[in-house]
Design goal:
The protein has 7 helices and 11 strands. The radius of gyration is 19 Å and the shape is elongated. A 5-stranded mixed β-sheet has the order 5-4-3-6-7. The chain has a 4-stranded antiparallel β-sheet with strand order 8-9-11-10, covered by helices on one side. The chain is an alpha+beta fold. The structure holds benzoic acid.
Length: 212
């Protein structure tokens, strides 16, 4: 059965480019972006891994660890890392799981047999420090992911965990937010003393609370 939002991210031990990884222990108190890619030495994956490496300062700022996965062997991962450095100008700075026995792929349902019988699709899981799954997205093999979008969702999750707000369409950090419907206007007066813009009783826009 596939994993759903709110489920505990399954724990595992698997080989990686940074040695054997005990997943929950490795994650520690960090958020995690666990993502699979179809295969090593493929063009789209090469650009993705370069981008995730380049974005490391952004992941670090948010207390996020990235970890990639494919079913290719560790020796291939290590050889491919040189190509990533050469072509993307950024060297691999996060672990890549070598899921040769499909242990992790099966646990996380990353092989979709009607798309490809053996290779993993482009799955993304955002996992919070309590090891709960907070986002899942699945992309086809032919479409490289937008990791700026992944960071945007992490910003939203970290904000909405701390304040009684939700984030509207196309929100990015610093934009106005929405007071969640479960908060009454009386409660809102205490939580958002600077006030809000009530477009409808259910649509109350407020400045981003951790920026005021
Ligand atoms: C790629 O990463 O370039 C790729 C992998 C599998 C199918 C299509 C493209």
């Amino acid at each position: 059965m596939s994993l759903r939002l709110g489920d505990t991210a399954p724990d595992f031990t698997q080989d990686s480019t940074e040695g054997s990884i005990d997943f929950h222990q490795w994650a520690g108190d960090s958020w995690v972006v666990l993502f699979s890619h179809p295969a090593d030495f493929t063009p789209v994956c090469t650009t993705e891994l370069g981008e995730v490496s380049r974005l490391k300062p952004e992941f670090d700022k948010r207390n996020v660890k990235a970890i990639g996965l494919s079913v290719d062997p560790l020796e291939d991962h290590k050889a491919w890392a040189g190509d990533i450095q050469e072509t993307q100008g950024s060297s691999l700075n996060f672990p890549l799981l070598a899921d040769h026995d499909r242990k992790v792929s099966d646990l996380y349902d990353m092989v979709h047999p009607n798309a490809d019988s053996t290779l993993t699709v482009r799955s993304v899981f955002i996992i919070d420090p309590n090891k709960k799954i907070r986002l899942t997205i699945t992309y086809p093999a032919s479409t490289g992911r937008n990791f700026t979008e992944i960071l945007r969702v992490i910003d939203s999750l970290q904000l909405t965990d701390g304040y009684k707000v939700a984030t509207p369409v196309n929100w990015t950090d610093g934009d106005d937010c929405i007071i969640v419907p479960s908060v009454s206007n009386d409660q809102a007066k205490e939580l958002f003393p600077q006030g809000w813009d009530e477009k409808k009783s259910y649509l109350r826009m407020v400045k981003q609370p951790n920026k005021t």
